[in-house]
Predict the structure.
Amino acid sequence: MNTVNPELRRNLWLEFSWHRVIAVPVVITLLVLLIVASDDKNTFDSLTTAAAYGYAAIVLLWGTKLAGASVIDEARERTWDAQRMSSITPWRMTWGKLLGAPSFAWYCGAILLVIFMVCGSQGKLPVARYAALMACGALMLHAMALNGGVLAARNGVANRSSGILIILVLLFLMMVTRVLIPDNLEKPVTWWGLSLSYINLLLYSVVAFGAWSVLGAYRAMCNELEIRTTPWALPSFIVFTAAYCAGFAIGGHANDPSAFFGIMACAVVTAMVLVYGLLLAENHGASAWQRLRVRMQARQWQRALQELPLWLVALAVGLFAALATSITAMGSTTMETLDGRLVNKIGLAPIALILFAARDAAIFQFFALARQPRRVIAATLFYLLLLYGLVPGLLNVSGAHALAGLVLPPLVYESGFTTLIMAVQAAIAIALAYARWRKLHALDADFRK
């Protein structure tokens, strides 16, 4: 028993009691008898549907909530610091919480999953693939929730976790509405030239992204336990997601002339989404830049990589992908699976997109680098609302279209002009953020040294 993961063992002791162990199968048996007694025509179909929805409610929704709250509750009860100081490794901590916190939900779900497979096998439903999809989908959602819980605890928002729960409910609804539609199970889907059934592609996708979710939860736990890691996982995830999405976008083979363009274009969008998400999720402020500055001055390049903010890593990957996309678009005369006219009009638009993200990130950092930063997100959103909507809208209404173009330039049809304007705006925003850091924090860091 001593070889069992201590975090897993602790959660099992908290979640299980003899009363719970006995009550669950008794209640499920009574519900099964109730359904059998009330429906004598399509008993197996009714039991299959009830078991699937019960599994979704208990394991996908409630289990995900338990996994996400495993760290949040400890932070709220002020026991998380003691957990962090224990000798348990990040990997064992991750799996201990990932499997231990929702263990009772898994216990209930396992019984429902058996009922689903037994009753569903009486029809034409591919119950084995369905059951694998449901189990892997639950694990993916649990890992995503655990990752979100670690980030919430790190940023001190353990008492404001309603946003995470709303996201989890939306994910739950998306999963249930798509999974429980048997009519489209064998519908063929073209992905990278392969014709796959919908259920198989969905299963492979959930397995792949479930593995990435577990890796993300592990990396978040490493950072929370002050074990530094180099940022190789995030660029790998961006490339994987871009290749995955490009398979649908172009629907061609890997040797298709537009394959590389499709991957790089999808990488730009993926990187931009991650830049904005990581800006909100990571610790922001002067301390991160001061640690990075010290490592670079000492020429400790590996440690400098470990101190890099992940949003900056995503921005760098997005910039590389944008350059590759623009070069490919301008150097290609024909595209077999993409609209050639659209490709020719893209030009420098991918670079302009990344410059939009760079400017917005610099604005965020400007407010985060204040002496006493308050309401950083709200202040950033206010100025982004001005830049993206109110100011250009008022200028256009007033007839000052040229000035409106300088604030919010058109993206596709004048990509060169847009890139130039956004480069100037990004440079100004970066200069302002750097000047604030130099004024308020750089001298403090030199004094402490």
User: Anything to note?
Assistant: Strands lie at 188-191, 194-197.
